[in-house]
Amino acid sequence: FSNFQYWSVNSGGNMNYNQFDTNSDISVKISAAQYECIDAWIIIGGDKSNHHAWDLVLLTIEWVYDQALALGNTDDEILMLAPLESFDDTTREYGITTPSNMDYAFSTWAPSKVGPNGVLAVYAHDHGGTDAMSIHPWPSLTASQLDQYLDDFEAASGCDRIIVVYEACSSGSFLDDLSKSDRIIMTSTEPGYSAWWSPIPPHISMFGEGLFNSILAGNFSMDET
C-alpha cells in the first residue's frame, strides 16, 4: 500500500474526502512482530429482511478475512459466519450467522484457539440500529447478547483481552454494553449516525478500509492500540 483514499463523516454529518500516503504520512514498519498479538478472529456478517447491500456486506467480510491473513493469521485461526442470503456465494465461511453458530464460535471454537494470555479479535458488519445488529432471518443480535458472548468466551478461555470492531449504522450504541477492562471496542459511528461503504472500488466499508490499511501500512499496530 503506498496510497489510499477514504471518506470520513464529521459530527455534523458531512462527508469529507481524504487521502493517506504511506510514503510521506508515516514511517512504515517492516517487522511482522507488530501483528503477532492476535491469536484468532471471529468475523460476523449480517443481513436485513430486504437483503439491501448483502453483496457489499459479503465483500467486506471476505476482505477483512484477507486482512487477517495478511496480519499473519492462518485459515484455521479465522472463523467467518456469513448471512444466509450470501451462503452460496462464498466458500470461506464456517457457517451461517445464526445464534447457535455464534454461541459455538465464542464458547467452543475461540477458547480452543486463544489461551489465557492471548487475544481474540472480533469483526462484525451489517445494517444496525440502536443496540441491535440485523442478522435476518433470525432476531437481531443485541448489544447485551454480544456482550454475553464475549463473557462466555472469557469464562471458557480464561482470557479477557478482546478487540471488537463493529461496523454498522448506530454501531456506537454498543459501546456501553461491550466496554470492559482489557477490551478494545472500535465502532464505525456514533449512536444515531450512518455507516457507509466506500464510493471507490472495491466498495468495502469505509471505516474498516481505513483501519486495516493503516495497520498494515504500519501507522499503528494492534499491540499498541
UniProtKB/TrEMBL annotation:
Gene3D superfamilies for the chain: 3.40.50.1460
GO biological process entries: proteolysis
GO molecular function: peptidase activity
Stated name of the protein: Gingipain domain-containing protein
Lineage: unclassified sequences, metagenomes, ecological metagenomes
InterPro entries: Peptidase_C13
One Pfam family per UniProt: Peptidase_C13
